[in-house]
TrEMBL record:
<dbReference type="InterPro" id="IPR041997">
    <property type="entry name" value="Ribosomal_eL6_KOW"/>
</dbReference>
<dbReference type="GO" id="GO:0003735">
    <property type="term" value="F:structural constituent of ribosome"/>
</dbReference>
<comment type="similarity">
    <text>Belongs to the eukaryotic ribosomal protein eL6 family.</text>
</comment>
<keyword id="KW-0689">Ribosomal protein</keyword>
<keyword id="KW-0687">Ribonucleoprotein</keyword>
<protein>
    <recommendedName>
        <fullName>60S ribosomal protein L6</fullName>
    </recommendedName>
</protein>
<feature type="region of interest" description="Disordered">
    <location>
        <begin position="122"/>
        <end position="147"/>
    </location>
</feature>
<dbReference type="GO" id="GO:0002181">
    <property type="term" value="P:cytoplasmic translation"/>
</dbReference>
<dbReference type="GO" id="GO:0022625">
    <property type="term" value="C:cytosolic large ribosomal subunit"/>
</dbReference>
<dbReference type="Pfam" id="PF01159">
    <property type="entry name" value="Ribosomal_L6e"/>
</dbReference>
<dbReference type="InterPro" id="IPR000915">
    <property type="entry name" value="60S_ribosomal_eL6"/>
</dbReference>
<dbReference type="GO" id="GO:0000027">
    <property type="term" value="P:ribosomal large subunit assembly"/>
</dbReference>
<dbReference type="GO" id="GO:0003723">
    <property type="term" value="F:RNA binding"/>
</dbReference>
<feature type="compositionally biased region" description="Basic and acidic residues">
    <location>
        <begin position="127"/>
        <end position="147"/>
    </location>
</feature>
Length: 188
């Protein structure tokens, strides 16, 4: 009996460039998760991003599920910032934040403005100084409001930080792991 001839499949078939591809999202966006043993006033260590290794104070959880943290800016240069809780290590150190009013700050506070986006071609090539007068005044007003908010929160935090010995130096110091450090033995 003769053996059946095998048919081999020839590679993938690629669509033409002008053919529309309909993208269907197969999974839903994750819902904001609950906090994992993180309380307001707790000191966190940032693990990623521009401020990697910095210690910050947790203020509250935003509606998006992100954490609102601050350095304070005067101590270690970390401004009011949103952070995913997957990128922080909670420590046992706590700061009293009774005098801090972070109720006004929500996710809209961090939204980018039209001047920052520069969607159209003219806006893309324009520098900050080349914005029209109305955009410049709006941008200055927005930045001034952000500075005032940062200063009010920092002033309240720094007053409580100064009451505890060595807490200012602790927040100002960067966290890092050296060659001889045993990460599994660390207690935060």
């Amino acid at each position: 009996m003769p053996a059946k001839k095998r048919t081999t499949r020839i590679g993938n078939w690629y669509k033409a460039d002008d053919e529309k591809v309909h993208f269907i999202r197969k999974r839903k966006a994750p819902r904001p998760s609950s906090l994992r043993k993180i309380n307001p006033g707790q000191v966190l260590i940032l693990l990623a991003g521009r401020f990697q290794g910095k210690r910050v104070v947790f203020l509250k959880q935003l509606k998006s599920g992100l954490l609102l943290v601050t350095g304070p800016f005067k101590i270690n240069g970390v401004p009011l910032k949103r952070v995913n809780q997957a990128y922080v290590i909670p420590t046992s150190t706590k700061v009293d934040i009774k005098g801090v009013d972070a109720s006004k700050i929500e996710d809209e506070y961090f939204k980018r403005t039209q001047a920052q986006r520069r969607k159209n071609e003219q806006g893309f090539w324009a520098k900050r100084g080349e914005l029209n007068e109305e955009q410049q005044t709006n941008e200055k007003k927005r930045l001034e409001e952000k500075r005032k908010t940062q200063k009010s929160i920092d002033d309240a935090l720094i007053a409580t930080v100064k009451k505890t010995a060595l807490l200012k130096q602790y927040l100002g110091a960067r966290f890092s792991i050296g060659k001889t450090t045993r990460p599994h033995d660390l207690i935060f």
